[in-house]
Design goal:
The chain has eleven helices and eight strands. By secondary structure, the chain is α+β, with helices and mostly antiparallel strands. The chain folds into three domains: 78 residues, no CATH class; 174 residues, no CATH class; 78 residues, PDZ domain (Pdz3 Domain). Helix 2 packs antiparallel against helix 10. It is elongated. The model has no long low-confidence stretch (mean pLDDT 83).
Length: 376
């Protein structure tokens, strides 16, 4: 909620600084319950009924008369560069706040929120908060240790996990993968070689040696087992200058991760796997469930993850999808390049935006429902 308020505040401040009139700053979605107050520039701050989002209503969407389109305090009468600043100011604010919070977290001290096995995905993460195993070893999150036999202490058998397909049991010892010896240190590296391929695994159960074969796909080549390991996760102690570099590196790394995730989502959608695509999305109930876990680690990981969400929100919102800010940037650019008259163009654009906004709201409610099922 706070992140979205800050997002809309970015639009509000930029619009007012550029002398564009803002009719309303709305908490949640109409119908309106109450006008909380009205400021000196006649902007109404309102409380609305549906707790789904926040919004501002500048003088570019709802015109009481056609002449208002060309008023001095209307968005469409401003130079193109001012329009771009108003629409992109929130991106700058999100990036600046994320950078500052990442910097503080790295300077104080930070541990990874999750370490992702190299065998989990087809991309390599260099994020300090969500590193893959190889990157975590590179930056010394993981100290070198003496490897041990991989003895299964517990298994996860739900949905479509690999342990649901093969009969691995508690107390089994995983000995080889395609005839390569397995231990607690190299399991991820061996499995990462077989993403989207067939893999053969040998286990020792009491005095018997048993083999299983399966195809690695979907969520990667993951065993979905718990096992004891002497691996220790240590915190990073960075200097002032190193923390600045790490904060900038984190923004770039998480931006890449977000686009990698969107690319995988796109591939599922074009193949017609709509249900599977939606099942990989989570917001905002899933974020709360993850935050509860992270808060049990330490407060700085919690704060850093909040701004990871802020960064993802900024990236998602800049996509050229109707009803998002990226769509507004695209249509404003088209109007400027082709010299289209706002009066004729806005009617069509508003209908498209309203239609997609309804779709996004339905999608959001459905994803919230999936999150409740998954986490609660």
């Amino acid at each position: 909620m706070v992140l979205v308020i800050l997002h809309e505040m970015g639009h509000l401040v930029a619009a007012k600084k550029m002398w564009v009139k803002v009719y309303e700053f709305g908490l949640w979605i109409p119908p309106r319950i109450k006008t909380l107050w009205t400021d000196k520039s006649w902007t109404k701050y309102t409380l609305n009924a549906l707790p789904l989002w926040w919004f501002i209503r500048p003088k570019w969407e709802d015109f009481e008369s056609d002449s208002e389109i060309y008023d001095k305090d209307s968005f469409h009468s401003q130079p193109f560069w001012k329009k771009v600043i108003i629409l992109l100011w929130w991106v700058f604010m999100n990036l600046l706040i994320a950078f500052v919070l990442f910097f503080i977290a790295f300077w104080v001290w930070i541990k990874p929120v999750f370490i992702i096995p190299d065998s989990a995905n087809s991309f390599h993460s260099t994020s300090y908060l969500f590193p893959t195993t190889s990157f975590a070893q590179k930056v010394w999150y993981i100290k070198p240790y003496k490897p041990q036999p991989l003895k299964v202490d517990g298994i996860i058998k739900q949905g479509n996990t690999l342990t649901s397909q093969i009969d691995i049991q508690t107390w089994d010892i995983i000995t080889t993968i395609w005839w390569q010896a397995v231990n607690t240190q190299n399991a991820w590296e061996l499995l990462s070689q077989y993403l989207w391929k067939k893999v053969e695994i040998w286990i020792k159960r009491w005095d018997k040696n048993i083999s299983y074969t399966w195809n690695c796909n979907k969520n990667g080549c993951l065993l979905w087992v718990f096992y004891s390991s002497p691996r220790q996760i240590q915190k990073l102690n960075l200097s002032f200058i190193q923390a600045i570099g790490a904060a900038w590196h984190e923004i770039i790394a998480e931006t890449k991760m977000t686009f990698d995730g969107l690319w995988l989502l796109y591939h599922k959608l074009i193949k017609g796997h709509v249900k599977k695509a939606l099942s990989t999305m989570s917001w905002p109930v899933g974020a709360v469930a993850v935050w509860k876990y992270i808060l049990s680690i330490w407060i700085w990981e919690y704060i850093a993850f909040i701004w990871s969400i802020s960064l993802a929100l900024a990236i998602f919102n800049v996509l050229p999808i109707p009803a998002l800010d990226g769509w507004r940037i695209l249509t404003t650019s088209i109007m400027h390049i082709f010299r289209l008259k706002p009066k004729n163009y806005l009617v069509i654009e508003n209908y498209i935006s309203i239609f997609f906004f309804i779709i996004l709201m339905i999608l959001g409610i459905y994803i919230m429902y999936l999150d409740f099922i998954r986490f609660y």
